[in-house]
Amino acid sequence: MFIQGELIYLRALEPEDLEFIFLIENDVKLWEVSNTQTPYSRFLIKQYLENAHQDIYEAKQLRLVICHRETHKTLGLIDLFDYDPQNNRAGVGIVIQYEQERGKGIGTEALDLMIQYGENHLYLNQLYANISTDNKASINLFESAGFELVGIKKAWTRKGNQYKDEGLYQLIF
C-alpha cells in the first residue's frame, strides 16, 4: 500500500520495520505523547508486526510508515486509532523520528495524505487529535491542517510530579 505525496509516501508496515518501531516505542521522550509507561520488547513488536495485516475494520487502527520519496528512508509513523465505523471517526497521531527531518514539511504532507485517505477511502466524517497544550509544534501542525481546538482536558496527563492539560482537536469534513 502506497499513498504518494511530493516529498514522502506512506506505506504499510513490513517485518523489516521491527528495529525502527522498536526505537520509536522505546524512546522515553515520546512516551508522554503516546501514553506509554513501559518499554516494548522486540518479541512484542514482532508479534504486532505479524498481525499488522489486519485491516482497519478488524484492528480499529491503521499504522503507516512515512518514507522519503527519493531516498526511501524511513522517517516516522502516522496512525489512525480508535476507528469508529458507526460514527465515521478516528483519532490521528504522527511522529517524525529524526529531529533533523522535522520542520521540512514531512509531517504536514503525511497528515494531509492521511486526511485525504480518511475522507476519500474510509468516508470518515471527522478526525481528532489529543495534543498536550505545551506541544507547540504539534498544535501548529494540526491547526495548519484545519483542526480546531474544541476543548481542554485539565490536568489530563502526568509527567513526573506535574499534570499537564491536553487539547482535543477536531477536523470535521
Automatic annotation (TrEMBL):
GO function term, MF aspect, one: acyltransferase activity, transferring groups other than amino-acyl groups
InterPro entries found in the cross-reference section: Acyl_CoA_acyltransferase, GNAT_dom
Domain called N-acetyltransferase: residue spans: 8-169
Top-level taxon: Bacteria
Source species of the chain: Myroides albus
Keywords, comma-separated and alphabetical: Transferase
Name used for this protein in its record: GNAT family N-acetyltransferase
Keyword Disulfide bond: no
